[in-house]
Amino acid sequence: MAHYRASESKREQFRRYLEKAGVLDSLTNVLVALYEETEKPNNALDFIKHHLGVSGVEAEDAESLREELNTLQQKHQQLMEENQELKSRLLQYEPPQDEAAAVE
């Protein structure tokens, strides 16, 4: 019997926490809005996320971002290789800074 009261007390504390944080009101409002929809959405979870203001990356956006990331990584690699090549070519015409300082 004591175990039942302890878990009930924890539940009540958690319920008060959710109420104080405004979670219960927000969820209730969203669920009421979903209930009042004349044409129920195909994806209730998306409806809830949208009405709660959850911003997430859509699948199309994620794919577009992956492609852009891949393109930029390739461009970065090309620029790094070009930079290394130019540094090597520059060393043919100018001594490294350490040697130039030692000569003076």
UniProtKB/TrEMBL annotation:
* A GO molecular-function annotation: transcription coactivator activity
On whether Nucleus is a keyword of this UniProt record, the answer is yes
**Gene Ontology cellular-component annotations:** nucleus
Q: Where in the cell is it found?
A: Nucleus
The family note in this entry says: Belongs to the AMY1 family.
Show the PANTHER family listed in the entry: ASSOCIATE OF C-MYC AMY-1 (PTHR13168), C-MYC-BINDING PROTEIN (PTHR13168:SF0)
Record InterPro entries: AMY1
Q: Where are the residues of the annotated region Disordered?
A: 85-104
The name this protein carries in UniProt is Zgc:136962
Grouped into one coarse class, the protein's main location is: nucleus
Gene Ontology BP annotations: positive regulation of smoothened signaling pathway; regulation of DNA-templated transcription
